[in-house]
Specification:
This protein has 303 residues and is an alpha/beta fold. The chain has 2 domains: 4-147 and 289-301, Rossmann fold; 149-286, Rossmann fold (3-Layer(aba) Sandwich), CATH 3.40.50. The protein is 30% helix and 26% strand. The strands form 4 sheets. The chain has a 6-stranded parallel sheet with strand order 9-8-12-13-14-15, sandwiched between helices. Helix 1 (13-23) packs across helix 8 and helix 4 crosses helix 5. The mean pLDDT is 92.
């Protein structure tokens, strides 16, 4: 661990500092400047040559994705002993396949391939929408899917909620919800959801198991919030006492936050995987740092 160098892209610096603290190691802040023509300058604050380089970077937008590629390739160029990458939030992760005859570009796969082709030694992802991206390389990269179940369960237990039932907004996520419910020792159910456009869904009925209980609607991410708010309303119609939400990735795109504020949902529990998310009156944000530190410690000890 004394040979470690921890850096991040700009977006994930706050989380990377927490990971470094959890590892008991210093955080190395990249030297960054922007030229008048928009080009960006990067330099490592010290020589990464011969060291185990750890890069933490969400790829929630094009700039962050490109910056992560630059850091990986910069580590290679400067002869880092190993290049280890943790991606707390993978952008375009829901685009892991193209519909037949659509001529779509499955950017979840193509962009992850760009990361792999930069030649890191190890890449870890957190709570992927689909594990298909793990296999978007030729076998030369060590990949790892980090599940945040234990952190999520601990946060629900510490939230003060009582007599709760976990609700999946669709059957596709119900297996994960069942796993969380098993850890919590509580019941679970799933709503009926159909997607009829890119960001538009319609949610049908929810089981009466929520009647008289606190419903916790669980998903891997919140983007626009449409299906989750619909699910919350179906829970209340089915007799739920109140509704809360839990999701790992708090994207909250566009007017999502305003929609949640106007909805009957009491709180949203989620992680700091998506840059800029902090606890406030609506959000209860827990950090992935202890979990990421544990994974990195295990990976580096195997080297």
């Amino acid at each position: 661990m004394n040979n470690l160098m921890i850096v991040s892209n700009w977006a994930s610096e706050a989380l990377a500092r927490r990971v470094a603290e959890a590892l008991g190691q210093p955080f190395s802040e990249m030297v960054c400047r922007r030229f008048a023509d928009g080009e960006q300058y990067h330099a490592f604050p010290s020589d990464p040559g011969g060291r185990d380089l750890v890069i933490i970077g969400a790829t929630h937008n094009d700039a962050s994705h490109q910056e992560l590629l630059d850091l990986i390739q910069g580590g290679r160029y400067n002869n880092a002993r190993t290049v280890n990458v943790v991606i707390p939030y993978l952008g375009h992760s829901t685009m892991e396949r193209a519909k037949p005859d659509s001529n779509e570009i499955p950017k979840g796969i193509t962009r992850t391939r760009q990361i792999f082709r930069a030649r890191p030694d190890f890449v870890a992802f957190v709570d992927l929408h689909s594990e298909a991206v793990l296999h978007a390389h030729g076998g030369e990269i060590s990949t790892y899917h980090i599940w945040s179940d234990e952190l999520a369960v601990a946060q629900i237990r510490e939230s003060g909620l009582e007599d709760y039932v976990l609700v999946s907004p669709d059957y596709g996520f119900s297996k994960r919800v069942a796993r969380l419910a098993s850890l919590l020792g509580c019941p679970h159910t799933a709503a009926d959801k159909d997607r009829y456009d890119t960001d538009k869904t319609i949610v049908g009925q929810v089981s009466s198991v929520v009647r008289g209980r606190t419903a916790v609607v669980c998903d891997d991410m919140i983007r626009t919030g449409g299906s989750i708010i619909q699910t919350a309303n179906r829970c209340l119609e089915a007799g739920a006492r109140e509704v809360h939400v839990m999701a790992t990735h708090l994207v909250l795109a566009g007017e999502a936050r305003a929609r949640f504020t106007a909805s009957p949902i009491r709180t949203i529990i989620g992680s700091d995987s998506y840059p800029g998310r902090e606890s406030d009156g609506l959000l209860q944000v827990y950090s992935l740092a202890p979990l990421l530190a544990t994974v990195l410690r295990g990976q580096l000890h195997r080297r």
